[in-house]
DNA sequence: AAGATGTGCAACCGCCCATCT
DNA sequence: GAGATGGGCGGTTGCACATCT
């Protein structure tokens, strides 16, 4: 049984708001506030609108100090950085950008930033493909194929091949076409920055530092972590930055192509995963967008705490939209715990 | 000039969760 | 404790406008 509708839909006006309706709503709220009850509000003012619709109109349009359009590059970067760390939690991202609404940011992301990013990726892919082709011709190897020719994306980890007879938990989607995962990977690779210099920020000598190389976004990320995690996570960034240099360094050999990107972060993440694969399989799920089979015992440790992580999902792309929050928290927990573990030695 | 296609954005939908009764 | 209610949120849709052919 579904729940009762919040308003009588037959007697409720839909569609664009007229200036008169805007004026009514605005003047009432400015004088009396919302009264803590959006559902009753339209009746009080004599508006034939759903309470939710009023709330949305107020929050997204009528509220004072709302900015529309004209996103700055700094805002772009903040959005991208936060998208890496928390995913599509638009309300939280909006909270970090004064005057911006979640709806605005969501729209901006969907219509512009995402395309901008994908365009950037295509450009890089073309360059890589050209280089690979050139190298291949040089070597003259018979078995050479350009990365895309055999479905291997040059940027991402090699995805485990689907096992024969394994049930497909979701309508199969080409992992490379999973926009959400794709974009997050790409953002991570780009160091969380979308605009500005194409050259990645240098991470030389830096140690487990979040890819954001500008203090503002660093601070924002910290805030985000604080928002989501228990008090213990608050010291995450400090703990990590206090670690001795090279604590996490490795050459990245044998790691995913992602780890060879400009940002150090994926490499450090890989370090942790390699140093403690059992505990950190979930991170692979999250960051690589695929489940990871536990070798040997046939179980998947991530399954113990994930709602979607059945055995079938272990070989197919995970529905990141469903598990993202959990995995993000898991990532933070694991990173913190790992960092603490390493500092204690 | 006109139709087709693309883009941006406001608004709606439906779900989840916290609170109330 | 269970159901009802409202707030909040992310995803999606629909429409107006812009651009292309």
Automatic annotation (TrEMBL):
<dbReference type="InterPro" id="IPR009057">
    <property type="entry name" value="Homeodomain-like_sf"/>
</dbReference>
<feature type="domain" description="HTH myb-type">
    <location>
        <begin position="63"/>
        <end position="117"/>
    </location>
</feature>
<dbReference type="GO" id="GO:0003677">
    <property type="term" value="F:DNA binding"/>
</dbReference>
<dbReference type="InterPro" id="IPR001005">
    <property type="entry name" value="SANT/Myb"/>
</dbReference>
<dbReference type="Pfam" id="PF00249">
    <property type="entry name" value="Myb_DNA-binding"/>
</dbReference>
<keyword id="KW-0677">Repeat</keyword>
<dbReference type="GO" id="GO:0005634">
    <property type="term" value="C:nucleus"/>
</dbReference>
<keyword id="KW-0238">DNA-binding</keyword>
<feature type="domain" description="HTH myb-type">
    <location>
        <begin position="9"/>
        <end position="62"/>
    </location>
</feature>
<keyword id="KW-0805">Transcription regulation</keyword>
<feature type="domain" description="Myb-like">
    <location>
        <begin position="9"/>
        <end position="62"/>
    </location>
</feature>
<keyword id="KW-0804">Transcription</keyword>
<protein>
    <submittedName>
        <fullName>Transcription factor RAX3</fullName>
    </submittedName>
</protein>
<keyword id="KW-0539">Nucleus</keyword>
<feature type="domain" description="Myb-like">
    <location>
        <begin position="63"/>
        <end position="113"/>
    </location>
</feature>
<dbReference type="InterPro" id="IPR017930">
    <property type="entry name" value="Myb_dom"/>
</dbReference>
């Amino acid at each position: 049984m579904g729940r009762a509708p919040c308003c009588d839909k037959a007697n409720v006006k839909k569609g664009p708001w007229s200036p008169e309706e805007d004026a009514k709503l605005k003047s009432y709220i400015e004088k009396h506030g919302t009264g803590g009850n959006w559902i009753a509000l339209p009746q009080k003012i004599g508006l034939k609108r759903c309470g939710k619709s009023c709330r949305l109109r107020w929050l997204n349009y009528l509220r004072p100090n709302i900015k529309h359009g004209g996103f700055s590059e700094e805002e772009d970067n903040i959005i991208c950085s936060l998208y890496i760390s928390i995913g599509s939690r638009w309300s939280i991202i909006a909270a970090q950008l004064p005057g911006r609404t979640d709806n605005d940011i969501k729209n901006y992301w969907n219509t512009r930033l995402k395309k901008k990013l994908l365009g950037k990726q295509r450009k890089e892919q073309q360059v890589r493909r050209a280089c690979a082709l050139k190298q291949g011709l040089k070597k003259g190897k018979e078995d050479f194929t350009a990365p895309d020719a055999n479905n291997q994306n040059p940027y991402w980890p090699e995805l485990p091949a689907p096992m024969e007879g394994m049930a497909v938990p979701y309508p199969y989607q080409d992992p490379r076409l999973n926009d959400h995962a794709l974009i997050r990977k790409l953002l991570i690779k780009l160091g969380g920055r979308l605009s500005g210099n194409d050259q990645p920020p240098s991470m030389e000598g830096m140690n487990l530092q979040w890819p954001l190389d500008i203090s503002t976004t660093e601070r924002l990320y910290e805030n985000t972590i604080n928002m989501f995690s228990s008090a213990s996570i608050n010291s995450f960034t400090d703990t990590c930055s206090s670690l001795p240099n090279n604590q996490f360094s490795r050459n990245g050999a044998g790691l995913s192509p992602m780890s060879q990107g400009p940002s150090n972060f994926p490499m450090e993440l890989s370090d942790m995963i390699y140093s403690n694969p059992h505990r950190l399989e979930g991170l692979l799920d999250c960051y690589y967008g695929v489940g990871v089979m536990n070798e040997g015992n046939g179980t998947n440790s991530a399954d113990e705490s994930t709602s979607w992580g059945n055995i079938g999902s272990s070989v197919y792309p995970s529905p990141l939209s469903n598990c993202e929050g959990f995995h993000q928290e898991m990532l933070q927990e694991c990173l913190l715990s790992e960092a603490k573990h390493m500092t204690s030695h």
